[in-house]
Structure formats: C-alpha cells, structure tokens
Design a protein that fits this description.
Layout (H helix, E strand, L loop, with lengths): L6 E9 L3 E4 H5 L6 H8 L3 E4 L6 H16 L8 E5 L10 H9 L5 E5 L5 H14 L5 E9 L9 H4 L4 E10 L6 E9 L7 E2 L22 E2 L1 H23 L8 E4 L4 H11 L10 H4 L6 H12 L7 E8 L3 E8 L1
Parallel strand pairs: 4-5, 4-6, 11-12
Antiparallel strand pairs: 1-7, 2-3, 6-7, 8-13, 9-10, 12-13
Helix pairs in contact: 3-4, 7-8
The structure holds acetyl coenzyme *A (ACO).
The site of acetyl coenzyme *A has 24 residues, from helix 2, helix 6 and helix 7.
Amino acid sequence: MSDLLSVTIAGTGSYLPERVMTNDDLAQIVDTSDEWITSRTGIKERRIAAEDETTSDMATAAARKALEQSGVAVEDIDMIIVATITPDTLTPATACYVQDNLGARQAMAFDISAACSGFLYAMKMAKRMIASGAIQNALIIGAEKLSAFTNWTDRNTCVLFGDGAGAAVMRAAQPGEGSIIATDIGSDGAQTDILNIPGGGSRCPITLENANDHLATLGMQGREVFKHAVTRMKNAANAVIERAGWAAEDIALVIPHQANLRIIDAIADRLSVPNERVFVNLHKYGNTSAAAVAIALDEAHREGAFKKGDKIVLVVFGAGLTWAAAAIQW
Ligand code: ACO
C-alpha cells in the first residue's frame, strides 16, 4: 500500500524531573558501585520523579514543548498516543489525562504498551493515520515513571532505570519539508519471560499474600535481553536503511534506544556507523523505556546534532519482545 501523503515531525519536546540520582547515591541503597554501573552500562545518573509527579504530568510537560516548537495549535491535534509501561492508572489511558491537561478537546486519546519500542510504534501508527488522510495532526509521547515500578532492593535492575518524557507533533509534510521515509516494526511474543513486570495485571493480581514479593516491578534476564537487543536492533535499522535506499555513510545520526552503552556500541559497529554519529545521553538519564528515544530525539534536535535535510535513523528495542526503527529525512 503506498501512502498518499508524506508525514513530517513538526516539533519535538522533552521533560526530565528535577531530582538527580547518581551512581554513588545508589551505592548507599544496594551493594553496587559507580565503577560497576559505569563499566557495565555507561549510566552515571538518572532522574527520579517526585512522589506526586505522574507519568501524565511529565508527558504533558514534554508535549507542551513539542506543540510550541511545531506551531500546531492544541485545538488542532486529532490524536494523542502515549507510549508507556508505567501508566497513571490501568484505565483510563494516560493519554486521556494528557488530553485533559492540554485541553486538546478534539483529539482521540489512547496508550500503546510496547515497552521501550512504544514511541516508534506510536510514530508508525500516526504516520499511517496522517498519510491516509484519516487525521491531520498527531501528538505522540513516550513517558515513564519507572521509579514507581522498580525493585529498589535488586541491584540487577534498580541501577538501570530512570523517569522522563519525550514528545513529537506530526503532520503532513509541506513541499520542501523532510519526512519519515521508512519504518520497520516487530514483536516476538515467545520471549515474554525475559523482561517483564509479572504482577499487577489480571494474570497475577497483587494480593495481601504476595504484596511484599516485588511482583509489580521490572524483572529482567539481562544477558538474554542483551543478545536479542543487538540482533533485533541491527536488523530493524538495516531494514529501514535499505528501504530508504541509503548507505551507512549517508546517515548523519543514529539515535538508538538508551539502555546500555555496550549495546549502542555493538549496534554502531554492526551498522558500520562511527561512534561520533551515534547519539548517546543515557549517562544522564539511564533507561527511560518508551521515553528514551523520544528524549534523545528532542535533545539531538535542540542541540543541532542534525539539521534540515539530514538523514537520521531511530532504532529501539524493549519488552515483549518488541523492536522498531525509522528512517527520517529531517
Ligand atoms: N552492581 C554490582 N554488581 C552487580 C550489579 C550491580 N548493580 N548487578 C549485577 N551485578 C553482579 C551480578 O550479581 C553478577 O555477579 P556474579 O557473577 O557474582 O553472579 C555479575 O555482576 C554479572 O552480572 P550480569 O547480569 O551477568 O552482568 P552483565 O554484564 O550481563 O550486565 C546488564 C547486566 C547491565 C543488565 C546487561 O545484561 C544489560 O544491559 N542487558 C540489557 C538490558 C536492556 O537492553 N534492556 C532493554 C530493554 S529494558 C525495557 O524494555 C524496560
């Protein structure tokens, strides 16, 4: 099916909570060290939301910045998608809280649960809706309060995650504007056990008996996840690069999911893209799941790490397993 309209990203925004938690702070809570965390992951610090700060609060703050940059009026937003695995409530969707906060009254609003891949899943859905003419303007957001779903006594996981939100406003491209050239998206439901929040859903409700078992926190078989992450991200990135008809040397910047510097280095190596053309901010924020690539896109954009006309590749991987990539000519 060929798209009727090209679709562009008109504005980006992000929000990080004020509180900084360093590796040394974590070493006060669990048996770990700055040296271990830095050498295994590349993370130096992460942001932690205030107790009364919700995923939708962070999503709203990021969205306001994206809207401001895009020039699209909030009344003209037709669809809001929030990608999150840490929603304000199981229902209603976090996107509905965001809609109310923004006053985006004509928008449909719903969440996508695709873990770290959610923002690019949302981008693909919005692209198709706009390209087909079903809607005109979409607001997509990746937002997470992972600190509320972290087992703070488990050093295997608590050192990895952080809170934050990133957003983008999408609309049909005008002549001369850049566009999203290609997307690739996939899942492997046979791997649900290696990265999950096992409790708190209908499969395993939290009860008085299991309330202290940390079932509603993120669990992970790190080594397994690592292997899948490298292969799936490499394949997804290569798929969009090929579909776009680009070569590695054409790419101005790769913006990968920010989970682990060793994974990012392995991807850069397999794509034959030098490290200086790969965007990294996980030393500041850790892994913010669905928010990570959205925050990175906004930071790279505002820092001038790419400019109009540049070819960039976004690539992500997360629980599900899920993965996705997008080739964008800015
Ligand atoms: N501090 C000190 N020691 C630690 C810590 C810590 N924070 N955590 C684990 N260790 C110890 C372990 O206990 C183990 O000790 P042992 O050998 O005595 O048993 C040793 O360090 C090695 O542990 P591994 O888990 O094998 O360490 P590894 O080198 O694999 O690194 C890590 C772990 C960082 C989690 C890595 O596997 C990884 O990054 N995996 C991928 C994560 C990812 O990509 N996630 C993306 C999706 S996230 C999402 O969707 C929400």
